[in-house]
Amino acid sequence: MKNLLFILASLILFSCGNKTKKQNHSIIGIEFSSESFEKAIEISKELNRPIFIDFSTSWCGPCKKMDNFVFTDSIIGDFYNKNFICLKYDAERGEGIILANKFEVNAYPTLLFFSPQLEIELKHVGYKGPTEFLELGYTVVNKEFSYNTIPNSLSDYELNIQDITEFSSFVGYLSPTEKDSFLFDYFQDIPHDKWYKPQYFHLIENYSYSIFSPLSKFVIVNRNKYSELYGKERIDKFISGLMLFAFETPKDLYGKPYNSLSDDEINKLLFSELAKIDSVFASKNRLNHEIMLVSMNVKENYNDTEIWNSLFTKGEYYNKHYSHFDKEWHNFPNNWYYRALQITPNNLEIKNYNETILKRAKSRLTESDYNKFAEGLSIKTVQRFVSSEKQSENSKKELTIALRILAKSHNVSKVWANDFLSKINVSDKDIINYKEEIIKNVL
């Protein structure tokens, strides 16, 4: 077994493969099937091939690490694609919820291996590196190890994967403005042609914040090639995220020479630069920033009709001209749910706040937009209540309004309910009843 691990590790960590393969072959990795679980079972029996399922969630760090450093490897892709029916589910969405409950999946990632007869051959919880993950697959298919079982298309990782993952863990603790500097230093010794590879793009995508950093500029200039490799939606989302961050913290990005300028002057300068990159993205995010500022102003002047009119006018214009891009680009959404999150006050001591806010929203919004708004305001209110050290009669009143709204909705996730509702320990009858109703809906 030690010899097997040594050989597998050597094959994954060093480039010694067939150089006639296309440059981007290693990006393919595991090809997860889009078939339903029932259909996958049929295919598994027909081909007499076991099933591999990766259960993950959108917030799971180790899951993302496997997505970027393990599932993208060409050796792993070749082996798993030839020997398994590969499926991937978000355990908190769609069919993933049903299957996660059925197979008692409670932690992520969970790696499940089934025989064609649907018997669980192996179940592993937690992150597995490339070598260990490949060994899991060999264990399940029970094959004799030989060089013939290793695909001819070898991984072209030329840096120790452990080095990359350790750096990823380190840079994750830095502030956004520090990350760009450390990241660029790390990339100095890496040839530009390798910046396209999944493990390096993962670092840029997750830790490059400044739109003017050399790494961000490289992705923007080579946008078409990155879009071919990783999909246009993903690259558009990355660039739009850079723009949004630029509007939120312009002084940090521009540095000391610009500290004497006003926020308005910097924003104008910033907008002119961003418009050169993508005028539609820039206009969209500038309006998004304006709406955010108005939303924050509402918190301090929640009875001011003029401010509310400005919010509704800007919001309606955004929805008419830009909301379709949110879905197309999987961009940061600017709907009434997220606007309500920004309107929620930092404390719950303002009397009749939620009641007044909801009345204002109801008078101008469609039923669909109002429901989104009410849900966002309510979820944030619960979070504010839980994080507050003082739980006064007024904060309990605001909480009661929020829980009453959420009790009518089935959109609250199980994770959110566990994290926040379990921390509400009050004896008020209404609060207890609403909380129990929400938990019942979740389960």
UniProtKB/TrEMBL annotation:
Family matches, as InterPro entries: AGR/TXD, Thioredoxin-like_sf, Thioredoxin_CS, Thioredoxin_domain
Domain of life (superkingdom): Bacteria
One Pfam family named in its UniProt record: Thioredoxin_7
Keywords assigned: Redox-active center, Signal
Extent of the signal sequence: none
Domain Thioredoxin as annotated: residue spans: 5-146
PANTHER family (UniProt xref): ANTERIOR GRADIENT PROTEIN-RELATED (PTHR15337), THIOREDOXIN DOMAIN-CONTAINING PROTEIN (PTHR15337:SF11)
Protein name: Thioredoxin family protein
Organism of provenance: Gaetbulibacter aestuarii
The organism's taxonomic lineage, starting at the top: Bacteria, Pseudomonadati, Bacteroidota, Flavobacteriia, Flavobacteriales
